[in-house]
Design goal:
Blueprint (H helix, E strand, L loop, with lengths): L1 H28 L4 E5 L4 E3 L5 E3 L7 E7 L7 H14 L6 E7 L7 H11 L6 E4 L3 H12 L3 E3 L7 E3 L2 E5 L4 E4 L11 E2 L3 H15 L2
Length: 208
């Protein structure tokens, strides 16, 4: 009787152990990044005077920022942090960056090409994009819900967010959760913690 009981208990423990290991594997292998919705459609012109749309990024994991080349405040830091992402994923053609100017009157294709050269941009999927001012403002503020606008009272004449948007291979905006379980929506493009987080999540999306 004791032997039967021992065998029964051992079997239950074994099953529990197998179930626990399976649950842990699923939990840590599962990509738990939130889906915020589809990336807004866009069609703009890059630094090589080529039309680039959101469809050109299909099948790629990419990061979107809104900036302008003559920005005297946060843009240089944003661009430097984008360079860190470029270096981390250089050579991976499934990765890309879309840097969209909010000052298209100044940031022509030629100006953006020089800006990219000065930065040291070398990834073929890093596009600096320009177009119609109202179109871009609508894309930033309503499409992505990332603030940008003119303000004559600030240095450079424009103000904007320092946030980065992360897009997956299917064209969906993705993000991680904060410590309270709430989606962060976008990544801090100014601080090292934000760059570390988005780098980790780019790796996750590239493996999907």
């Amino acid at each position: 009787m004791k032997n039967k009981s021992y065998i029964g208990i051992s079997f239950i423990v074994l099953l529990f152990g197998i179930w626990t290991v399976k649950e842990l594997r699923e939990r840590y292998n599962k990509n738990e990044l939130d889906v915020l919705g589809n990336v807004p459609s866009f069609s703009l012109i890059d630094q090589n005077n080529k039309k680039i749309t959101n469809e050109d990024y299909k099948g790629k994991v990419y990061v979107v920022e809104f900036f302008f080349s003559s920005c005297p405040s946060i843009c240089p830091r944003m661009n430097q942090n984008m360079l860190k992402l470029q270096d981390a994923f250089y050579g991976n053609l499934d990765f890309g960056i879309a840097s969209i100017t909010i000052d298209p009157e100044n940031d022509t294709s030629a100006q953006l090409k020089q800006h990219a050269k000065d930065l040291g941009v070398k990834h073929p999927n890093w596009h600096f994009l320009t177009g119609d001012y109202n179109y871009i403002m609508n894309l930033a503020n309503k499409g992505f819900n990332i603030y940008a606008g003119k303000n004559k009272n600030v240095a450079g004449g424009f103000e904007h967010s320092g946030l980065f948007a992360l897009i997956d291979k299917e064209g969906k905006i993705r993000c991680r959760k904060d410590k309270f379980g709430n989606p962060i929506l976008y990544y801090d493009g100014l601080e090292e913690a934000g760059i570390k987080a988005i780098k980790e999540d780019i790796k996750l999306l590239l493996e999907e």
